[in-house]
Fold this protein.
Amino acid sequence: MGSVRSKDKISDGFLELITTTHLSKITVKSITDHLHISRKTFYNNFDSIHDVIIYTEKSILDDFLPDFKNAGNAADSIATLVEILPTHLYDLRDKIKIMYTPDVRGIWYEYMLETYTKWINKNVLYDYKSRTLPKKMAASILIHDFISAIEYWISQPIPAKPEVFQKQLAVILNTTPLNIPEL
């Protein structure tokens, strides 16, 4: 259903509109008018505006997630996360800043929360005997801190270079209530 090129064009058009228009005012018609495409073209690619947002989220993380998911054990994956994610996010910072705007932040945040929670629950070991927090609570704290750190960093008018944020991210991940080896 639809081509990647058409989906990317619609996604980019949505991102352009969301910078000037409240999400509740963005319609299929406003996107098709903005992009000079037909409603049929829109519906050949997406079922709804929400689908455009989900596609946009996935496209932001698509280049990064395979490296992350295929890194092997938790320590390798966390190291990959710290090494690759800041550069990837920095390169896409204009799109990501838009995803953190009030209109779409909740949807973006839920997507990130779901993506990273699945990985944490599958890959990170948790020593129940030496920890006082349940794994889900510990994972939730880690993920919320992680997402908040990214939001704070990338939303700055001029974000620190990825190398600087990598060090900050490593500190956050090394102070987690989960058992993650030192980076």
